[in-house]
Amino acid sequence: MNPRIRKAAPLVGAAAVLGGALLGWALDPHRKVPLHKILSPAEWVRHWRGVDCYDPAQALLEEGSPDVPEVALTFDDGPDPRYGPEVAAILKQKGAAATFFLVGRRVKQFPDVARLLAADGFELANHTYNHQSLPALKPHEIANELRVCDRDIWAATGRHTTLMRPPGVQYNDKVLSVAKALGYVTVSWTVGARDYDADTSSDFVRERVLDRAAPGAIILLHQDTPATVAALPAIIDGLRAQGFRFVTVSQMLDRLHAALPARPAGP
Ligand SMILES: [Zn+2]
Question: Which of the ends of the chain has fewer CB neighbours closer than 10 A, N or C?
């Protein structure tokens, strides 16, 4: 063989493998890694370090284990007096675990709905007191948003929270470090139903979730959207038909053997 061809062969092979991987990614309808992550060297480093699902340094959960067919249904912005009880009844009837990220202000307004979610055995988590964008706040204000929400969930249900999701899933290093110092894991998402618009149809919500679900998916839904309530039975049945089991976010962290942040001692 021509020596120049022999020298170039490994490079051509590597380029072909990389090209094939990129093509496979582009054609995969179930892909859950967005393009900005593929192109980000920081994300490649996280992947290489094995912290792309859960990063203990930041106490940030981005997805569950991709090796087991488990997904987490998460519902933000409750407790909602109109649809919360119906969402809980559907989940209960179908035996599906779920995690509810509650807004403290609404827990104070509708403690009965929060109590119902707790009594039905769902996981309750912290979605701040006022549902403000956290990166704009000072560290002590972020801490206050989390503490007051936790206090109100505790007052209504007797439970404390260890998971938080920032409103709009907007966070930066400051938000992550304040949350971690208070003992919280910050929970992101991988499949968004885009169910926050009032005119979203239940068909759209159902298809979007069923098309994008993958092992380890954290599915972001809202409990105050009629389209989501209408789509929920078919979402649960459809995911089961694809072979997925439902777990809480805490169970997802257990599966990853995640090193959780220490809870601060306090009153
Ligand atoms: Zn929210």
Answer: C
Cα angle 206, 237, 169; round to 5: 45
Is 76 assigned a catalytic role? Answer: yes
Prior bond of 166 cis (ω within 30°): no
- Kindly give the distance from the C-alpha atom of residue 104 to the centroid of ligand 1, in angstroms, as a whole number: 11
At 100-136, the pLDDT tens digits run 999 999 999 999 999 999 999 999 999 999 999 999 9
Identify the weakest region by mean pLDDT among 21-25, 71-75, 214-218, 249-253.
21-25
The predicted pLDDT at position 264 comes to 84
Report the pLDDT averaged over residues 140-157: 98
pTM reported for the whole predicted model: 0.84
- With residue 235 as reference, give the H or E element that holds it: helix 226-241
Could you give phi then psi for residue 261, rounded to 5 degrees? -70, 150
55 is catalytic: no
The domain limits of the chain are 31-255
User: Which residue is catalytic, options 80, 131, 222, 224?
Assistant: 222
Cα 84 to middle of ligand 1, angstroms: 14
Residue 4 CA, ligand 1 centroid: distance in Å: 59
> 3.30.1380.10, 3.40.50.9100, 3.10.450.50, 3.20.20.370: which CATH number matches 31-255?
3.20.20.370
Query: What spacing in Å lies between the alpha carbon of 167 and ligand 1's midpoint?
Result: 4
